[in-house]
Automatic annotation (TrEMBL):
Keywords: Antioxidant, Disulfide bond, Oxidoreductase, Peroxidase, Redox-active center. It comes from the Eukaryota. CDD domains: PRX_BCP. The lineage of its organism: Eukaryota, Metazoa, Ecdysozoa, Arthropoda, Crustacea. PROSITE patterns: THIOREDOXIN_2 (PS51352). One of its GO terms (biological process) is cellular response to oxidative stress. Monomer. It comes from Cyprideis torosa. It is an enzyme of class 1 (oxidoreductase). This is thioredoxin-dependent peroxiredoxin. GO terms for cellular component: cytoplasm. It catalyses: a hydroperoxide + [thioredoxin]-dithiol = an alcohol + [thioredoxin]-disulfide + H2O.
């Protein structure tokens, strides 16, 4: 996993419009936690824009899934498709997880704040999905 002060990996992926984008915040479409997280950020999005902060979400969901998720919840920010897991692997946020005694591979919900020079300035590895925007705002 990357640390504060590390240079953020720059990998080109596709957003919901099939455009090339290069900045991640891992999440997953249409699950309760990720929907809460996405909507929390949506509700505070104007505050981020005023501070010149770009919010971009990422998950292994498809471009089509991202577009449906954006439309369903009126998300004003970009979502990136990482179906090949290159970005989550580069950030070290994909691995073995455990739920109710069952092990499986999945994305560790993590938020990275990266400055204009591409340096990781903050990492939130215990994301409070209902208060994700407040967590980010407390660090910027």
């Amino acid at each position: 996993m990357l640390k504060i002060g590390d240079k953020a990996p720059i990998l080109t992926q596709k957003d919901q419009n099939d455009n090339d984008i290069t900045f991640p915040i891992p999440e997953k479409d249409n699950t309760p936690g990720c929907t809460s997280e996405a909507c929390s950020i949506r509700d505070e999005y104007e505050d981020f824009i005023k501070k010149d902060i770009e919010i971009i979400g990422i998950s292994k969901d498809s471009v089509k899934s991202h577009q449906k998720f954006i439309d369903k919840y009126s998300l004003p920010y970009t979502l990136i498709s990482d179906e090949d897991l290159r970005v989550v692997d580069a950030y070290g946020v994909y691995g073995k997880k455990k739920m109710m005694g069952r092990e499986y591979m999945g994305i560790f919900r993590t938020t990275y704040i990266v400055d204009s020079k591409g340096i990781i300035t903050h990492i939130i590895d215990k994301v409070d999905t209902k208060n994700a925007a407040a967590q980010i705002k407390s660090l910027i």
